[in-house]
Amino acid sequence: MEEGSADIALIGLAVMGQNLILNMNDNGFVVCAFNRTVEKVERFLQNEAKGTKIIGAKSLEDMVSKLKRPKRVMLLVKAGSAVDAFIEKLVPLLQPGDIIIDGGNSEYRDSNRRSKELKNQGILFVGSGVSGGEDGARYGPSLMPGGSEEAWPHIKDIFQKISAKVGNEPCCDWVGDEGAGHFVKMVHNGIEYGDMQLICEAYQLMKDTLGMTPDEISNVMEKWNKGELESFLIEITRDILAFKDTDGSFLVEKIRDSAGQKGTGKWTAISALEYGIPVTLIGESVFARCLSALKNERVEASKKLVGPSNLKYQGDKEEFIGHIQKALYASKIISYAQGFMLMREAAKEFGWKLNYGSIALMWRGGCIIRSVFLGNIKSAFDKNPDLQNLLLDNFFSEAIQKSQESWRKTVSAAVTLGVPTPAFSSALAFYDGYRLERLPANLIQAQRDYFGAHTYELLTSPGTWHHTNWTGHGGSVSSSTYQA
């Protein structure tokens, strides 16, 4: 097949696709645009892409003919069957060594499968997380590519040039094999759920127990954004809270309190259960959205179920705001520690070599969870690439130590005043569980052995399994062991 002039083709002209194409064009790459509805290509070329070097294609054959070798095709279509359908149509048009990139929010197991299937056909597959929303796509997203590593030298220049930068460092690096890029993106989205829920809990505490107005809380967010909590989500929360509707009232207070979700937070929680990693804060954040969605039931319940009679915080207002700030910071550390625990377990499971420091750097800019905090995570893994848990790094253990008293006071006050703080509370419970040498699981093991002869180990001889005839009339036969 004759070689064309385009550096890369992009299929899917929704907002993200269009913005990525314009970003690539700005960075000096010739992009061929294609969409299943071909009229959309024409519209894009006549409007947003007018006066650029972007070219269009009328069919997949036409698109492939316009590409330089190795031919690079990026998909930005709905995750699931649409990705498989395009791959099926593309394979006969490509040659060994050509590259298919899936830039959608695909499930990582799909990327594992596609990577293997395409490898057998000589095609290099890349599954890449793309974060930063429309604005990120246009001016610099965080990119998390994984899959066939042989593809990386051929896409590195494009990906690193279009990605966000922190200093001169691109927020994009090779993540790992198969679905590693999409797994890391999934964890990113789970952490995003956690960060958003934590900020909402801080907001509700200030609103309900201190009686603060949205603009007062916005001013607090403004202050927080100048310190250790500086991040994209705190910044946009500050702006949202200060935003007024056309009638002069605060828009945020008119929005129905029933949250939606697209599933990636849920996938993170499911993976946590699957691999036995206690990613409790993200799990609670997903459940908090599920609970919010029961709006009609909650309206009914609010008429019948009573909470504490006093809903107002009685102590010093400024001091309590300081406690909430520290509770938010400490809980956020727990959320990231849990996310990295999950990535470590997946790496073990699939044999991926993940570079945790560079993942933190990829998240420093362009993406939704970007924050100054990620620089500290990068430093922790630079100091010790084999760090078992972020909480064991001196910076983070000291930060938790300094925040701990405020964190406990915040959760205690929330419980006493009847304000739900599932993310603050589960983060603290995890911390207390993780730092204790002994937990009550010895009693669980005894119970399991009593009713099901599931056996137990002794502290003095781990690895050797014992069964006790607890009642005197049970047998001495034990059941086989299994991992819960």
What's this entry about, in short?
Its EC number is 1.1.1.44. The chain is an alpha/beta fold.
Main attributes?
single chain; 484 residues; alpha/beta; seven-stranded mixed sheet; two-stranded antiparallel ribbon; 19 helices; 9% strand; EC 1.1.1.44; NADP binding; pentose shunt
Question: How would you describe what is shown here?
Answer:
β5, α5 and β6 form a beta-alpha-beta unit. It is built from 19 helices and 11 strands. It is 53% helix and 9% strand. The strands form 3 sheets. It has a 7-stranded mixed beta sheet, sandwiched between helices. The protein has a two-stranded antiparallel ribbon with strand order 8-9. Strands 10-11 form a two-stranded antiparallel sheet. With 484 residues, the protein is of the alpha/beta class. The mean pLDDT is 94.
